[in-house]
Amino acid sequence: MTQEDVSYKDKKVISIGIVSELTGLSVRQIRYYEERKLIYPQRSTRGTRKYSFADVERLMDIANKREDGVQTAEILKDMKKKEQALKSGQFKKKMLEGQINAHFRYKNR
């Protein structure tokens, strides 16, 4: 997938300073969440972190959960569970589409 194929929401184009302004989080907090594997910024050739709008939304979600007292380990566990469920749902959808396509191809012969 090329950069042009990526939704505007997922393009990694926002600097950490702007992300800090948008979220109200300090640069240190944002880096900490990266260290805890809660966020994955892209790095430019010069090593500058670049974030997407989806990353900003994720950081806001993390900040809200932290304000509610949820630990980062629990947030990570929950995120992995949601990602796995999404992947599983996508896999099931593809399997169903394949079965439907195979069924109708077979009937049309």
Automatic annotation (TrEMBL):
It comes from the Bacteria. Signal peptide: none annotated. One of its GO terms (molecular function) is DNA binding. Keywords: Activator, DNA-binding, Repressor, Transcription, Transcription regulation. Residues 13-81 form the HTH merR-type domain. SUPFAM superfamilies: Putative DNA-binding domain. It holds the Pfam family MerR_1. The keyword rRNA-binding does not apply. PROSITE patterns: HTH_MERR_2 (PS50937). Transmembrane segments: none annotated. This is HTH-type transcriptional regulator TnrA. It comes from Bacillus australimaris.
